[in-house]
Write a structure and sequence with these properties.
ten-stranded mixed beta sheet; extended; single chain; 306 residues; mainly beta; 3 domains; Thrombin, subunit H; six-stranded antiparallel barrel
Length: 306
């Protein structure tokens, strides 16, 4: 087999696999599909702090995976909290070599040539970026559910079923969840334990012994604003929730790619980064990272210490 290149893309749990060959190529039990017009530039690694490569795809084009998930549509909106990772593999017969591994940092569209160009960079380029460090501020600099915030997304999120999608507006119904006791343990129906004759089994105090039966379920209700600044998660991709109103209606920051009626997704409440909400809503004030009592003026420049 002639030398070909394999292009792997991953966005959350979604994956797309393309090849520069004229026909589909199978490598490690993964099928790579040909894309007519796919090309790439040279891998620019002259600077140790920067290594990039540009990929050009025909656009518009149906670049779907086996699950009929659109590849191009991922880049038509802002990517939030989840990058698109890219791996370039050179395949020569049975031998393979990874030529590049990084993530997409910039999509560019050319309406005249009908092309989409993806700029991909390795991790080294991110190490040299000029970014803001943690600031001395009143509000909390942590992002909710990150390692500094400490809140568990799985614990605070809940399942909902999407009933309507209209642009950025999404309507859903809350799915039943299992009731938990005051200690956070799941609650089950208590069924008396019976012996082989159908009589209740008693303990040493002559009291019936019970065992766990079906889980006790409930449908919780959430007030308007509970999901403000929260997140929606589907297929490993998070989308920011601008706000929510009554009757299970939320508005997203951007369209969540592939979201449709009938999907079961998880949503989680958000935080306005204030100490008040951190304490009253999440009881997480011990990990609050802001300084709510900082003075309005810098005392080192406006006051003299005597």
């Amino acid at each position: 087999m002639a030398r070909v290149e394999l292009y792997q893309f991953a966005h959350g749990t979604k994956q797309w696999n393309f090849t520069s060959a004229r026909k589909a190529v199978t490598h490690n039990n993964v099928i790579y599909y040909p894309v007519r017009g796919l090309s790439r530039g040279n891998i620019e690694d002259a600077d140790i702090d920067k290594c990039e490569v540009e990929l050009t795809f025909p656009h518009p084009d149906l670049l779907n995976n086996e699950q009929e998930q659109s590849f191009t549509q991922v880049f038509l909106n802002k990517i939030y909290l989840e990058s698109v990772y890219f791996t370039l593999i050179e395949l020569d017969g049975s031998d393979s070599l990874v030529l590049f591994k990084g993530r997409v940092t910039q999509p560019k569209f050319d309406d005249r040539d009908n092309t989409m160009t993806l700029v991909c960079s390795t991790a080294e380029s991110f190490m040299r970026r000029k970014i803001l460090t943690r600031k001395y501020q009143r509000t909390c600099p942590n992002t909710i559910y990150d390692k500094y915030c400490g809140l568990d997304f799985d614990e605070w999120s809940f399942d909902v079923t999407v009933t309507s999608v209209n642009g950025l507006d999404v309507v859903f119904t809350v799915n039943p969840t299992q009731v938990k006791d005051d200690e956070g343990n799941p609650v089950f129906e208590q069924v008396p334990l019976l012996d082989e004759f159908g009589d209740p089994v008693l303990d040493e105090d002559e009291n019936p012994i019970f065992e766990d039966g079906e889980p006790v379920m409930e449908i919780k209700s959430y007030p308007p604003g509970w999901l403000n600044r929260g997140v929606l998660k589907k297929d490993g991709v998070f989308t920011f929730i601008v706000g929510n109103s009554a009757n299970g209606s939320i508005r997203l920051y951007r369209q969540h790619i592939g979201l449709k009626v009938g999907d079961v997704v998880r949503v989680a409440p958000g935080c306005d980064q204030s100490l008040k909400m951190c304490h009253e809503k999440f009881n997480n004030h011990k990990r609050f990272g802001g300084h709510p009592n900082m003075p309005t003026e810098n005392p080192t420049t406006t006051q003299l210490i005597k």
